[in-house]
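pls design
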């Protein structure tokens, strides 16, 4: 159609002419690249490179060098192959260290985890729970070196210095009837009325009721006598009884008369006396502070009068904590003191995350507190308990400070562990860095499985 004004056709006429025809061919749209999230790879590498360099220099290189060094002899000049690793399992001293590490791994992590669990559960219900947790956790603020010095003093043999033996001897004194007189003995000559037989002081001559006997003793320091000891006195003879006196027959600065009670000589109180007939004890008595005694209720006849050996045994001065027998349990006790607070805090955090609805529902259903603890609390805390337990295993495999500080030099071989043996062999006088490097790799092999277990568990929880 033509516009009557200008004679031009309607522009829509062309569209009508081609309407229904295929559109012209065009290129398909190109996919657009997704937008990059985060920094560019170059920037990421620039940030990671320093950490990677430090990791390689401080971790990877020492491990690789230790592996190579473990294949050489003590001086590093001769290649010995696996001889150093063979020595680990054939040397008696090294086998003792492996045995001690097994004891550590079996005992310490279990005890630390159990004590931490008990403390965490109990402190949840006491009024001053936070203060108690602070006190228990406080040893973590002390270095292991300082903790070792503390427990070296705690385990001193002398009860006047060692806290552990002071407590033990205090309790033992409550049940002990007398302190005894260690070192006391009769004179060693034929004129002495008594002699020593199997540790007991026995009168040479048989005694009958109605007689009074004497037990003069020597070998005691007057300053070691109890404060309540009084001057010795003679015991008069009485019918049907065996009487006598036990005293210290010695006076410094005065010659005195042998086997005779002098006015300045002290009686020995609290001494047990026995009258024996036919191999059986027929009567007993205990001396007074002035040393006198009287055995009553005896039938007519001859008796052997003796002072039992228990009167002359040394007083109980506690346990030898730093001896070869108890040194490893003693050090483990110090370790538990340090790390129990750490376990308690972690377990308490897991305990706080337990839903209270499950606990209250169990109590409403009639479960006792022990059943709630055993069947609900512990299963729900098992992931935390496992993490604490595995962490403690890794820690005890590397223990060094406490063993080095607490164990005296004479018993250190009995308390030795792999980490300490590694240092001792390499730098503590052994001078065998080949064997020391082998011990380091052996320790690394022991630790790695537990580390991988922890890392895998953390990733699974995330």
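designed seq:
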């Amino acid at each position: 159609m033509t516009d009557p004004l200008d004679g031009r056709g309607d522009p829509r006429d062309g569209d009508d002419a081609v309407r229904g025809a295929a559109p012209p061919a065009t290129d398909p749209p190109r996919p657009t690249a997704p937008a990059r999230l985060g920094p560019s790879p170059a920037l990421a590498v620039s940030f990671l490179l320093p950490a990677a360099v430090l990791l390689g220099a401080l971790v990877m290189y020492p491990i690789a060098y230790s592996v190579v060094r473990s294949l050489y002899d003590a001086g590093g000049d001769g290649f010995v192959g696996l001889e150093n690793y063979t020595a680990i399992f054939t040397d008696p001293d090294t086998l003792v260290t492996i045995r001690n590490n097994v004891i550590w791994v079996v005992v310490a992590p279990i005890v630390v985890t159990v004590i931490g669990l008990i403390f965490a559960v109990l402190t949840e219900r006491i009024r001053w729970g936070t203060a108690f947790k602070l006190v228990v956790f406080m040893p973590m603020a002390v270095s292991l070196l300082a903790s070792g010095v503390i427990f070296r003093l705690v385990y001193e043999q002398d009860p006047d210095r060692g806290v552990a033996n002071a407590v033990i001897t205090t309790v033992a004194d409550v049940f002990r009837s007398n302190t005894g007189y260690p070192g006391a003995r009769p004179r060693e000559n034929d004129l002495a009325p008594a002699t020593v037989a199997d540790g007991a002081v026995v009168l040479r001559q048989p005694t009958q009721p109605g007689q009074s006997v004497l037990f003069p003793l020597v070998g005691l320091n007057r300053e070691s006598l109890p404060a309540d000891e009084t001057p010795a006195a003679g015991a008069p003879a009485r019918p049907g009884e065996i009487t006598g006196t036990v005293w210290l027959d010695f006076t410094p600065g005065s010659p005195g008369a042998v086997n005779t009670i002098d006015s300045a000589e002290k009686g020995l109180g609290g001494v047990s006396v026995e009258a024996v007939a036919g191999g059986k004890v027929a009567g007993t008595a205990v001396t007074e502070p002035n040393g006198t005694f009287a055995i009553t209720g005896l039938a007519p006849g001859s008796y052997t009068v003796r002072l039992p050996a228990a009167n002359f045994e040394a007083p109980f001065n506690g346990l030898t904590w730093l001896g070869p027998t108890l040194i490893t349990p003693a050090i483990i006790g110090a370790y538990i003191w340090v790390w129990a607070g750490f376990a308690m805090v972690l377990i308490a955090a897991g305990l706080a995350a337990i839903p209270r609805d499950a606990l209250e529902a169990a109590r409403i259903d009639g479960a006792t507190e022990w059943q709630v603890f055993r069947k609900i609390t512990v299963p729900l805390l098992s992931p935390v308990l496992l993490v604490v337990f595995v962490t403690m295993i890794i820690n005890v495999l590397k223990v060094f400070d406490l063993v080095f500080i607490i164990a005296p030099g004479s018993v250190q071989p009995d308390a030795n562990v792999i980490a300490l043996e590694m240092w001792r062999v390499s730098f503590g006088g052994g001078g065998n860095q080949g064997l020391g490097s082998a011990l380091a790799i052996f320790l690394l092999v022991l630790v790695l499985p537990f580390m991988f277990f922890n890392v895998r568990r953390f990733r699974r929880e995330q």
